[in-house]
Structure formats: C-alpha cells, structure tokens
Amino acid sequence: MFGYPGGNVVDVFDHVRTAKFRFVLGRHEQGCVHMADGYARATGRPGVAIVTSGPGATNAITGLATANVDGVPLVLVSGQVPLSQIGTDAFQEADMTGICRAATKHSFLVKSADEIPEVVAEAFYIATHGKPGAVVIDVPRNVQEATTDARYPERVSLRAYHPESAATPSQVNRLAKWLNEAKRPVLLAGGGVIAANAAGDVAALAAKAGIPVVTTLMGIGCVSASGMHSLGMAGLYGSYAANAALAAADLVVALGVRFSDRVTERCFPNGVHRARLVHVDCDPSSIDKNVTADLGIVADVKDLLTTVNSRVKPSLRAAWLARVAEWKAKHPFSYRQLRRGVIMPQAVVEAVDRAADGRTLLVADVGQNQMWCAQYFRHSHPRRFLCSGGMGTMGFALPAAIGAAIARPDCRVVAVAGDGGAQMTIQELAVAVAERLPIVLVVVNNGCLGMVRQMQDESFGGRRCAVAFPRVHGAGCPDFVKLAHAYGAGGVRVTDPAKLDSAVAKAMRAKGPTLVDVVVDPEANV
Amino acid sequence: MTEETYRLNCFVENKPGVLARIVGLISGRGYNIQTLNVGPTEDGTVSRMRIDVLGTERVVNQIILQLRNCVNVIEVTSRRR
C-alpha cells in the first residue's frame, strides 16, 4: 500500500501501523497513486493507495486518470470529513466522488462502518473485472472511527455489473475461417493482451499460423522484439514495417486495443481500413468506437485465443513473412548524429538496451523520451515496459518505477525521463532512498520540453515558446547530480558519448538508487 | 450522419450519485440532454430514467454502451423519437 496521511484519514493510519502489508510513504499524493499504478502494471495485481481528504484527494486525481484510461486495476482509499460536516465547506473538504467521476471506473462514498467490508470487496472486484480500472473508496472520518461486526463477504455479486463475456461459436468460426483464408494477415496487439495475460497466446497464434504481430504502445512486450513475427509498434511514431504491414494486410485482427488516435490517424484514417478488420476487446464500448470493424467480438482475449489457436491451420505464409521481414530489415529506426561529440538522446536508450538483461524493467516518462524508449529498446517481455499511454502523464516514470521495483524485486528497474518530466515528481527520489530501491533514473536532459519544441518547429514555423529550461545554473534547470545527492541517491553526469555506456552500465549495477543525468543534443526529433 | 432525438430508457440502482454519474457521462461527451425524467419503479431499489438526447446513431450507440458499462446501470434501451 502506498500513501500519504492527513487529518481525515489518521484513524486508518493507526491501523496501518500494525498491518501485515508493507506501507510505503510517498512524498506527494500523485506520486503515491503512480506507485500503486506501477505496482499494478508490473504484476497485474491491483495497486492500492491511501490519501487524506481535500487536497490529498484532489492531488490523487491525475494518478487515477492515468491508471484508469490505461485499464490498470487500482483501488484508492480517500479520507473524507465526517458525514455530519459533508456539504458545509469544512476544513479539507472536497467532493471526492464528484471530482473523480470522470477519472475512475467507479467510486463509493461509505456511509456506515457496516458497509466497509462489502464496499472493499466490490471495489476490488470492479477494479479487476471487465476492463480493469481505478476505483475510489471515500471514507468519512466518523465511519473510520466506528466499529462493526460486518465480515468480508465470501463472494461478490453485483446486481447491475456483469462484465463477463464470451465469443459466440459463429464468431469463433468466422474468425478462424478468415484467418485460414487470409494471405496477408496481421495481428494488432494492444494493452488488453497484456492485461489478460495473453501475450503467450498471441505469440503462439503468430508462430502456428505464420502471422506477423504489430503492437500499440501499450501492447509493447506482447512478443519479443527480436522474434521473426514481431514488427514493433504501429502508429504515429511506429516502425516502418508495422505501418507497412497494416497497410498491405488483407486481414487485421486487433486484440485488446481501443484504437487511440495515435494509431488511427496513421493506420486507420477516418476510422476505416480497406482490409477485413476483426476487433476483439473485453469492453463492448470499444468496438466500433473509433474504427468500424467487420467483425466485433466482445470477449476475454485469452479465452478467445485459446479457442482460436486450436482452430487455425498451421501455415508458414513464407512469402508474406519474407516480405515483412524485408521491411523490418531494411527500415529499422534510425537517426542522424547532429553534432560531433554531443550525445544523441536515442543513443541513451540504446545504451540502456545494451546494459539490459532479461530482468530489466523499463519505465518511460512522457514525450520524446517515451517514444525513443518504445523505438530503441529491444522489448522482450510483457509487463516489462511501463508508460502512461492514454493520459500521457509527465512525471509518471519515477514513482511508477518505485512501485514496479517494490513489486518486482527480482527485476532491475530503469526509469527514463526528460528533464521536464523528471522535475514534476523528483521528490519521490526520497522514497527510493528510504526504501533502498536500486532503481536507475536516467534523465535525458535536453534542457527543453522536446516534444512541444518539436511541434512548434514542425507546425508553428519554429516559433518556440515556453519550452526552454536553460541548462545554466541559476537559469531554471537544477543540477540533477547535486539534487540526487541532496536526496541521498547516487548521481552522475554524462556529456561525453564515449562514457555513456559505462556510466549507464555502472548505474544499473549500483546497490541503491542512482540518477544518471545525460546531457543530450536538444535539437533531436522523434 | 444526421442528428436525431433518441429516447434512452434506463433502469438504474436507486443509490446516491447515480443520476450525477449518468448525466456526467452524457454531458462529458459534449451532448446536451433535452429532457430528463427520473422516477421510482415498483421495486424501491430501482429507479427509471428517461433521457432524450440529440445525436447521430453512432454517438447514441456509444453512449448506450458506455451507460451499460456503468456499475449502477441495470438496463438501457433506446428508440428514435
């Protein structure tokens, strides 16, 4: 459990003190929720956070929205003023269930202690069933103080929420038939595949039927990047091979995707595709929302793939696989060294990739660094690449990395952030130090907000505004190395391309948290 | 596609905050509710809502699917007015 105490949740903390679970004290409520989010993304188990009323609750909103839009199971307990004071503008009162409505899957305002066991059980059920999401339990202080004999229910049965769904036999028949008929099929795998723990089933289908796999940003890790069926990420910043394969396909089977505009603008303009399109998702409202499917199937991706895999004929599809392999070989991601002796930001991710082994868990922040992490790291496992996809929340990487490191002590967690995102949640470095987590925070320091700068250059005639964080002390950008030291973490600055590999590798062997401040070329574009 | 008025018939759990949740879901998509009627049913734990919204068939279908995803919504049907 991750959290931050306050006056209207202090009664619960009196029991946190003696609880059997590990409690991690964050430094800001947004950070606490991102930590719970990182924990959940790394494991598939729901993350839990606890905050106080008023500002504690409102600070948590960004974290809730970030988790919810990416379908991450998360339960947040928020304190609330006593029931008798609700609506009186009491000290630290905020209408949490009202404020969080659009940022969560569901929320509860607990009116009596007798309700608590049932509400907690329902909250976890809702967070983890159907499309996972964030659930808030708002608990007034007088309810926290009360006692009850109510017991935790053995099973949850919700009157109006029945997210279980399965494909009909005719849908399965049609999908299997279309897969067997297709000459140039492509699987488009999204975050729903990872959420359903179905990455292995996607790889099995690809191998059996000779089908290339492209992923969305959230689907990265579904199939190993080095595998012959893997074409990488599709969409706006996707690979040539992935986008070319989608364009040339005669059948696209989209699994656990919601067709975000980052993908559709490039690959499905106007929400249509000239190939046959099958869309499989556990969320009925995602089918035909942004892209019209020829066959929409509301089902658990894993259940469906288990059935379909036994129904498709083994096939080599040698010609089609050879064609996509040629695209993959001929058009890898590439960049040009802009200035001699200056580190290119893409090279930073390549250095992390070279230093990585099978137990590296990469957490990206948001912006250019996120796209470079998606492009230049050879992702090999599900739940080993975490980032804020739908919400695009800057400042996500460090706290999410802390949650992931607590969830996966067997993994070496590396967070990559720009100097903008790093400054949004840098205070959580104190948590990494206090909890002795050997995470690495790589700051890709270009002294500017690179993605916005790139947009201003490309779409606004180079009229740059409000994007520079001059790397001169006293001009606004902190000395990240001194900052790391101030928190008690290790810190090192790299400016020389020749020293990049060794600095990153050394940080990834360090015993405690280490910040690597890499000064990179500010003019690089995605 | 042309915009038309659709009447949504919703049966929902009679709990605090459900009306706000449903109205927020529709207004959050930028659609205006033309008429809203909420009342009890024979079953005191269930309320009935009649909501008239103006939108294209595609958008209204999306609204219905999202309403059905709502934890407190028991049933939604619709018809063109």
List strands and helices in order, with pairings.
The complex is a heterodimer of chains A (526) and B (81).
Chain A: E1 2-3, H1 10-16, E2 24-25, H2 29-43, E3 47-51, H3 55-69, E4 74-80, H4 96-99, E5 106-109, H5 116-128, E6 134-140, H6 141-145, H7 169-181, E7 185-189, H8 191-195, H9 199-209, E8 213-215, E9 230-233, H10 240-248, E10 251-255, H11 261-267, E11 276-281, E12 295-298, H12 301-311, H13 318-330, H14 345-355, E13 360-364, H15 368-376, E14 385-386, H16 397-407, E15 412-418, H17 419-425, H18 429-434, E16 440-445, H19 450-459, H20 480-486, E17 490-494, H21 497-507, E18 514-519
Parallel strand pairs in A: 1-2, 1-3, 3-4, 4-6, 5-6, 7-8, 7-10, 8-9, 10-11, 11-12, 13-14, 13-15, 15-16, 16-18, 17-18
Helix pairs in contact in A: 2-3, 2-16, 7-12, 9-12, 10-13, 14-15, 14-21
Chain B: E1 4-13, H1 18-27, E2 33-40, E3 46-55, H2 57-69, E4 73-80
Antiparallel strand pairs in B: 1-3, 1-4, 2-3
**Quaternary:** heterodimer
- Approximate shape of chain B: globular
Q: Can you give the helix content of chain B as a percent range?
A: 25-40%
The tally of beta strands of chain B, per DSSP, is: 4
Mean pLDDT across the residues of chain A is 96
Distance between the termini of chain A: 37 Å
- The CATH homology group name of the largest domain in chain A: Thiamin diphosphate (ThDP)-binding fold, Pyr/PP domains
Whole-angstrom Rg of chain B = 12 Å
What CATH calls the topology of the largest domain in chain A is: Rossmann fold
* Strand residue content of chain B: 35-45%
